[in-house]
Each structure stands twice: as structure tokens, then as C-alpha cells.
Design brief:
Elements lengths: L2 H27 L17 E2 L8 E2 L37 E2 L2 E2 L5 E6 L5 E6 L4 E6 L4 E3 L10 E4 L5 E5 L5 E5 L4 E5 L3 E6 L5 E6 L8 E6 L6 E5 L7 E3 L9 E8 L2 E7 L9 E3 L2 E7 L5 E7 L8 E6 L10 E2 L9 E3 L4 E7 L10 H4 L4 E7 L5 E7 L5 E6 L5 E6 L5 E5 L2
Parallel strand pairs: 3-28
Antiparallel strand pairs: 1-2, 4-31, 5-6, 6-7, 7-8, 9-10, 10-11, 11-12, 13-14, 14-15, 15-16, 17-18, 18-19, 19-20, 21-22, 22-23, 23-24, 25-26, 26-27, 27-28, 29-30, 30-31
């Protein structure tokens, strides 16, 4: 056999091997590729069938393009900050609302009137108290002039207020009787009992041994020491509960991403404490005083503030804690009733914002409505102009939200649908 014949034979053998191999691949090893059928998702949504054939596991992203946090893909949880729930249709777009200015000057510590139809506030330019309605009509609340008031703390029934001045002096003014009582200059962080007859504050002196949490009547007499503060005055937050059971929070240290919150009563009660998942605790009582809405920040939230709610009656402290998954501060929220709360939520927050609210709460806000019983939350209003909101209030009929702008201090109104 010649060399040419040998080469041809070898080439032929190789071709036969490749042909046999290809036939084996076609018959036994090629993967099955299904053709498109009626189960395909024709609208482009990524719907993956489960092992049991139920196509109900969805690939979900946040409405602003971010991936949901762990634990959000659950039919019982809200999957994003717009209040969309897993398996639910996308709600109609949030309405853009026109915000109306109600004052020309800075409105210091405004408060909702007892009838819920107007706002009381101190005008820092005219040195007087005024009332203004949703229609923008202003009237003088009292003819008395109060020069350079720095802070105003209103009683729940709005007939009295503690006025603080830049030089440290303090007075209690009764708007009904038009009388005033002076309080010591070393008293600070004021709050009223639900009936307005008593005032809680902190007595802060140069000697730590004389620092106390105290209660006095609204005439400044019959002062009672509630708790020795020592050097821990900055950890105590006066907050008289509406049910009259507690008068303050004490926020202690506990761990890397935890704080222990103690509840202080009027008579040296030994209430149970509550652990919170983060730092920077801010708390607001629900109108009935049975729960606390609070915000904390932690490494899990990039040190941005996040809202939680927990039971806080004498026998239920710390139970039923729920993470609301809304990033804002508790003092940017206001209650409509015991379960409905409205919050101003920044459109963006820098990492670490929870550590320094005074400097980092600068983003424009939108308004969210939260149901504390069901956990549902919805963005209900986006202002047509940018505002960093504070001092939120909701009218008794639920038709308006009032707020002051952090940048200019003026009072504004937002209509609600």
C-alpha cells in the first residue's frame, strides 16, 4: 500500500469517527430546547415557575430601581417604600400637589388648634401669636407682645405654653387668663401632662449632683423630683404619655447596633425596658399612649434613620415590634388617629444621615400615609416645589397637612385627596 493510500485511509477513518460521534450527540446528549408556548410571559415580566408548576415567584425591584432588602419578597410584607405589596397591582401614580404658603414670616413651633381647623403660631418678626386657617386668613391670637421668643411648648389643650428666650429665661403663659409665671432659667426640655396642669422638665445645674428630672404644676409650684440625672441628662427625653402612665424615656447603651430604652414613671415604678435595633432613638406616643412610633439608625440601614413601632403600655412594653421600612425621623411624623400616621420622607438620604439630623436632613420630602395596624404604607403626595418639612400637623378632617419649611421657617399647607 502506497503512502497516498495510507493517508486517504486515515482521513476516511477520522471522518467516520466524527460522523458517528455527531449522530450519538443528536440522539442522546443534545439538550432539549422547548419552543415558545402559551405559558411564556408575553408582556416581558420575569415570572419563574416553581417546582410545583405555580408561576407566582416574581423578580421584584424597588420602584426607584433598587433591589429590595432581604425578607421583602413575601406576600405579607410591603416590597418597597411606595407601599406596593407583593402580588398586588401597581397603584396609580402619586399625585403632585400644589403647596400653599400661609405665612410671610417665620412661624415658630406651630400647633393645631383644639378644633383642628386652624393653626396657632408665634410670629418671630411681629413678636405676637397668631392663628391662621386653611384659607390663609390670619388673626391675632392674643394682643400681648412677647419679644424674641426662641421656643414654644404648647399644652395639649392649647390654652397654655412654655415660652423660652435666648437669655435662658422661661415663662408659662395662660392664654385664657392672660397671666404668666416665671420658671427657673436652669430648667429645660419642657413637656405638659395630657390635662395641661403639670409640666415635666430637666433641672440642669453646673453640679451634676443637682441634675434632676422634675415635675411641677403649671403655676411653677409644688415641684417634685422624679429621677436623678447626674451626667446622663442628655440621655433622658421628657415625653408624657397620653394615658398618663409614663413621663420620659431613658436611652441607655447596649451594643454595637442596639440601645436599651427605659420607661420612666412618676412614682419610681420599675417598668420593663425595651431593646431597639439601632441608635439615635426618637420616640412619639400614639394618641392613646399604648404604642411608641420611633426611629433609629444602624449599620444595617447605612446609618440612615428608619421607623419602627412597638407596644408600650405598662404590661406590653416592647411587644409586637414592627419594622415599617420607611427611612425618616420620628419627629417628621404626625398622628391622625391611633393607627394612622403621616410622615415627611426624604427623597434621598446620605449614608450616616441618622447621626446628624440637623445637618443632613436637607432633602426634599414627599408625604407617606402609614397604617400601624396593617403595616401598609403609601406615598400620597409629592409637593410641586421642593420642601424639607418639619412640624407636621394634619387637620381633624384629614383634608390638609400643615408643615414648616426647614430652610425658610414659613408655614405651608398641602391638600390631601
Amino acid at each position: 500500500m502506497s503512502n497516498l493510500q495510507k493517508i486517504i485511509l486515515i482521513i476516511g477513518f477520522i471522518l467516520v469517527v466524527f460522523a458517528v460521534g455527531f449522530l450519538l450527540y443528536i440522539l442522546f446528549f443534545r439538550p432539549f430546547i422547548p419552543t415558545e408556548n402559551a405559558n411564556s410571559n408575553v408582556n416581558g415580566n420575569a415570572v419563574l415557575p416553581l417546582a410545583n408548576g405555580n408561576a407566582n415567584l416574581r423578580i421584584i425591584t424597588n420602584v426607584n430601581g433598587e433591589f429590595p432588602l432581604a425578607g421583602n419578597i413575601n406576600g405579607n410584607e410591603n416590597i418597597n417604600n411606595a407601599g406596593i405589596e407583593a402580588g398586588q397591582p401597581t397603584p396609580t401614580p402619586t399625585p403632585t400637589v400644589v403647596v400653599t404658603s400661609l405665612t410671610e414670616n417665620i412661624a415658630i413651633n406651630p400647633t393645631l388648634s383644639p378644633d383642628g381647623k386652624s393653626i396657632y403660631y408665634y410670629d418671630s418678626q411681629n413678636d405676637k401669636f397668631y392663628t391662621v386657617g386653611a384659607d390663609g386668613k390670619q388673626t391675632v391670637f392674643t394682643d400681648k407682645v412677647f419679644h424674641e421668643v426662641d421656643q414654644v411648648t404648647w399644652s395639649p389643650n392649647k390654652d397654655k405654653a412654655v415660652l423660652e428666650y435666648p437669655d435662658g429665661s422661661n415663662i408659662v403663659y395662660d392664654f385664657k387668663t392672660k397671666t404668666q409665671v416665671s420658671l427657673p432659667a436652669h430648667w429645660e426640655d419642657f413637656g405638659f401632662s395630657q390635662d395641661g396642669d403639670k409640666i415635666i422638665s430637666k433641672n440642669i445645674s453646673m453640679n451634676a449632683e443637682n441634675n434632676f428630672l422634675i415635675i411641677t404644676d403649671s403655676s411653677g409650684t409644688q415641684t417634685k423630683i422624679i429621677q436623678s440625672l447626674g451626667n446622663n441628662g442628655d440621655k433622658v427625653i421628657p415625653a408624657w404619655s397620653p394615658n398618663n402612665q409614663m413621663v420620659a424615656f431613658f436611652v441607655g447603651d447596649s451594643g454595637l447596633d442596639q440601645q436599651e430604652v427605659y420607661f420612666i414613671g412618676q412614682n419610681d415604678e420599675n417598668f420593663k425596658s425595651m431593646m431597639v435595633e439601632g441608635w439615635g432613638f426618637q420616640g412619639q406616643w400614639t394618641p392613646q399612649g399604648d404604642r411608641v412610633l420611633y426611629s433609629v439608625y444602624s449599620t444595617a440601614t447605612q446609618n440612615k434613620p428608619e421607623l419602627w413601632v412597638a407596644d408600650a403600655s405598662v404590661n406590653t412594653i416592647g411587644r409586637n415590634r414592627q419594622r415599617i421600612e420607611i427611612q425618616t425621623w420620628a419627629d417628621k411624623c404626625t398622628f391622625y388617629d391611633n393607627t394612622t400616621v403621616y410622615c415627611a420622607v426624604p427623597k434621598s438620604l446620605q449614608e450616616g444621615a441618622g447621626m446628624l439630623q440637623s445637618e443632613m436632613d436637607t432633602s426634599a420630602d414627599s408625604i407617606y400615609k402609614i397604617n400601624l395596624s396593617t403595616g401598609t404604607k403609601y406615598q400620597i403626595a409629592v409637593p410641586s416645589q421642593d420642601h424639607t418639612m418639619q412640624n407636621l400637623m394634619v387637620s381633624n378632617d384629614g383634608k390638609e397637612i400643615y408643615f414648616t419649611d426647614k430652610s425658610d421657617g414659613k408655614l405651608y399647607k398641602v391638600p390631601l385627596q
